[in-house]
Design goal:
Number of helices: 16
Helix content: 40-55%
Distance between the termini: 41 Å
Radius of gyration: 24 Å
Strand content: 15-25%
Length: 455
């Protein structure tokens, strides 16, 4: 429970202070094993602190008031589908990328490319080393399963480095646990990250551990992120390098955080073990060892929004088309995972299956297959790149289906099915509001930078 947010909302809606104090005191007692007097004192203090912050509204410094004022879009995260890996989420990420790009700093690959990781060239003179970075957050539904959350978010971050053609060299971890969370969660999460670190011999070198919201948030919610750093002697295998006539290859995917969540919350517990591997990283490292990275045009992990989302993003970035075959794709999904998805009526192309998808010239594809198979990873050709500008799948019955991301990724838990996947009728209006908010954020940033430079 966010006490500060709760109090702000109630004050904004005219709740009398004495009633608010009583309500908050009772809420605190639901989480804290303390006396009523202590909970009442805590409630009074929270209300006092929030009221003090509200005095800023009448403060004379207009520039300061402008800095602290949020450029609200009047669109909520859930409404827009942010984090749900669909059309709404992709749109918001493009706006975030525009805010990043407004800094006008230089990099080879940055968020505007909507790629898996970012890349800069080493600033050391005459160095041909490319540095790749990536960061991923823990799956929100794995807060109660810290080891699995740590294991899968570490894999996800490392995958994002690998698909840019880089060799992972370091892992960093940022861990936030709410005030009432058991400290053991910190160790359990870190052990999950450390398991991946040990399996692939890449060290954890730094991190941060804090409470979610400090004293203001009650409960035991765990949120975290793991970042990875990699290096390469070759330019990144970014999506924009795909070419007409390239072959599309796919390794077998058994899922990660999303599939683990699906298994836990739908009772398919044996599927959890299917996700506990490092095949993706083994395949990537094999390609580096066999000196094939320089010959691969693009690599990506089938995660955000599933293959539908990845195919659409590649087409959008390159203006090329992708033609893939349903039967070949399904054959590259772990049988137990595929059986679970079909049993639950979840679109296998709309969720993260954590396969490695490679796009390369046809004459290179056989060497890639040989490399992957030499480290025990299954791989198969699933389609080709063309100049149609459209991503499409050839179904088992021969019909064609254009691959487009849904508003949200395929619903893989019961609560997600209730929320739904359909695009809201006011989506275009929401997009305009969100875009206006991003533009205002850039304008604020520009003013602050200009002010500081003048000092």
């Amino acid at each position: 429970m966010d006490m500060e947010g709760f109090v702000r909302d109630k004050i904004a809606n005219g709740k009398e202070e004495n009633l608010l104090e009583e309500i908050l005191s009772k809420r605190i007692l639901e989480y804290k094993d303390i006396s009523y007097e202590s909970s009442n004192s805590m409630a009074q203090t929270v209300i006092e602190e929030v009221k003090n912050t509200l005095k800023l509204e009448n403060y004379g410094d207009e520039s300061l008031k402008e800095i602290i004022k949020i450029p609200e879009s009047d669109v909520a995260m859930g409404e827009m589908g942010v984090g749900s890996r669909g059309a709404g989420d992709f749109f918001v990420h493009r706006k975030i990328a525009e805010v990043v790009a407004s800094a006008k700093t230089s990099s080879l690959i940055n968020p505007t490319a909507q790629d898996d990781g970012g890349v800069v060239k080493s600033p050391i003179k005459d160095s041909d080393i490319y540095i790749t970075t990536a960061v991923d957050g823990i799956h929100s539904r794995l807060s109660e399963y810290p080891f699995l959350g740590g294991f899968h978010v570490a894999r996800a971050s490392l995958r994002d480095v690998c698909v840019m053609g880089a060799d992972p060299v370091a892992i960093i971890s940022d861990l936030h646990l709410a005030d009432d969370g058991d400290v053991g969660k910190l160790f359990d999460f870190t052990a999950g990250v450390a398991a991946v670190s040990e399996l692939i011999d890449v060290p954890i070198v730094a991190g941060s551990t804090l409470r979610v919201g400090g004293d203001m948030v009650l409960g035991d919610r765990l949120v975290s992120a793991v970042g990875s750093i990699g290096v390469s002697k070759h330019p990144p295998t970014a999506r924009k390098r795909a070419e007409d006539g390239d072959v599309i290859l796919l390794t077998e995917g058994s899922g990660g955080g999303t599939i683990t969540t699906t298994a836990i919350y739908n009772g398919f517990f044996d599927v959890i073990w299917e996700t506990m591997d490092i095949n993706f990283i083994k395949a990537s490292n094999g390609l580096i060892k066999d000196d094939l990275i320089k010959d691969i045009h693009a690599m990506t992990d089938v995660t955000n929004g599933g293959l539908r989302g990845d195919a659409h993003e590649i087409s959008s970035t390159t203006n090329l088309g992708l033609e893939v075959y349903q039967d070949e794709i399904y054959s590259m999904i772990s049988p137990k995972v595929l059986d679970m998805l079909e049993t639950l009526n979840i679109d296998p192309l709309g969720v993260s299956i954590d396969s490695l998808m490679l796009i390369a010239p046809e004459d290179v594809s056989k060497r890639i297959i040989k490399s992957a198979e030499s480290v025990g990873v299954k791989i198969k050709e699933i389609g080709k790149v063309d100049n149609s500008g459209i991503s499409k799948m050839i179904k088992s019955n021969g019909e064609e289906e254009e691959l487009k991301p849904l508003f949200r990724e395929a619903a893989y838990t019961k609560i997600k099915k209730l929320v739904g996947e359909t695009t809201p009728e006011n989506f275009e209006i929401m997009k305009k509001k969100v875009e206006k908010s991003a533009i205002e954020s850039i304008a604020k940033k520009n003013k602050v930078v200009k002010y500081i430079k003048k000092q």
